[in-house]
C-alpha cells in the first residue's frame, strides 16, 4: 500500500488553520498531526503552502453523454482536478435526459470509465416521469432535479408548475433541487424586448428579461409549497439579493429543510460586465446588478446561502458568439472556481476557513457524502495543496476545457493549485496529470437526518 506524508502544510479544515502533517495510506487519510518521517514514506514538503479538503462542486454540466462536442466527463473532470475540485455532481440534461434509474446507472458506468474526479448524478424529474420518480426508492440518490431540462421541452421547469411541484413535495423524501424562475414572466419580458429591438436584443437586457421578479416569485412560491409538506427543497444557483431574505441562518445546515447555493460567476461578475464580455457571460438565471452580487456574498458569509457551485456549462465559441436569442446559456468555470474564491480572500472579503466550509464541508454534509469533505482520519484523501503567492493569467494556453475558452481570459489570478489528491492518488501535480487511477462514485450515507 502506497504511503505519502505531506509535511508542514498550513491545513485549512474544520474552522481552523494549523501547521500540520497529513499521512495518506492507500485511499484514506491515516493520521493528522505531527508525524515523523520514516523509511518507505513518500514525503511532500508543503512548507509555505496551504492544504484543504478537495472542492466538491454540487452543480456541473459535463455534457456526457450526447453533447460531447462541448465537453465530456474525461476532459471536464481533468479541468476540475487541476482547479482543486475532487468531486462533482452532474445535472440530468444530457442526451438522453436522465429520467429513469437505468439511464442514471448508465451514466455512473460511463463516469467510472472516464472521470479523474469522484462523481455523482441527479435523477431528472419533470411532469412526464413524475409518477415513476414517486415510486422510486430515492434513499441512495443525491437528489432529484429539473435543472437544464427546460432546454429539452417547454414546461419542464418545476417552479412554473406548482401542481406538479406540490405532488413531488408531498411524495418524494429526497432532496428536490430546482431551477427557480417563472417561465411565464421570462416569456413576457422576451416579447417586450423583441417588440423594441426585433431579433437583435442587446445582451444587456438579459438580466431584465430573466428578471429579479421572475426569480423571486418562483422561489417564494416554491418555498411556501415545500414548507406546507415539510419537503427538502434546494434552490440552485441563486442570483438576487432579494431572494436571500427567504432563507434562514438561525439553525445549522443539518436541520434545514430549505437550502440554497450560489455559483461563482454570480459572485464575480455583474451586469456592467455584459458590455465587455457580451454573450460569453450569458447564464440562466442571469448575472444581475452589483447590488445583487454584493447581497449574494453577504448571504454566503452569514450562512443564508449554504455552499458554492459553478454551474459549469461549456458551449463552443461558435454556439456562444451568436445574437441574443440564438446564443446558448452557460459557460465553463470548474477549473477556476477555487482561484476566484481565493481572489476574494486576498481582497479581505472572505476567510480561508469560510471558503473551505462553503466549497468542501457543506456540500459533503448536505448531500450526506460518506467520508468526504474534511481532512480527518479515516476519510478519503481528497485534498488540494495551493500556493497563495503564485500569480498567473488565464489564457488559451492554460485553459483545459474541451471548448477551449473561458470568460476569465485575460484575468490575473494570484493563487495556484500545486497538487490535487483524489482518493489518495496524486491525480495532478504542477501541470501534470496521472490518470492511472480514476475517481469513485459518491456514496450517500443511509442514516436518517
Overview of this protein structure:
The radius of gyration is 21 Å and the shape is globular. By secondary structure, the protein is α/β, with parallel strands linked by helices. Helices cover about 30% and strands about 20% of the residues. The chain has two domains: about 5-50 and about 375-390 and about 410-435, Roll (Urease, subunit C, domain 1); about 55-365, Alpha-Beta Barrel (TIM Barrel). Strands 1, 2, 3, 4, 5, 15, 18, 19 and 20 form a nine-stranded mixed β-sheet that branches. It has helices spanning about 75-80, 100-115, 130-135, 160-170, 185-195, 205-210, 210-230, 240-245, 265-270, 275, 290-300, 315-320, 335-345, 350-365, and strands at about 5-15, 15-25, 30-35, 40-45, 50-55, 55-60, 85-90, 120, 125, 145, 175-180, 235, 260-265, 305-310, 385, 390-395, 410-415, 415-420, 425-430, 430-435. The model has no long low-confidence stretch (mean pLDDT about 95). One of its GO terms (molecular function) is allantoinase activity. One of its GO terms (cellular component) is cytoplasm.
The N- and C-terminal alpha carbons lie at a distance of 35 Å
CATH topology of the largest domain: TIM Barrel
Strands, count? 20
Count of distinct structural domains: 2
- Could you name the CATH class of the largest domain? Alpha Beta
Task: Give Rg in angstroms.
Answer: 21 Å
CATH superfamily of the largest domain, by name, is: Metal-dependent hydrolases
Mean pLDDT: 96
Annotated CATH architecture of the largest domain: Alpha-Beta Barrel
> In percent terms, what proportion of residues is strand?
15-25%
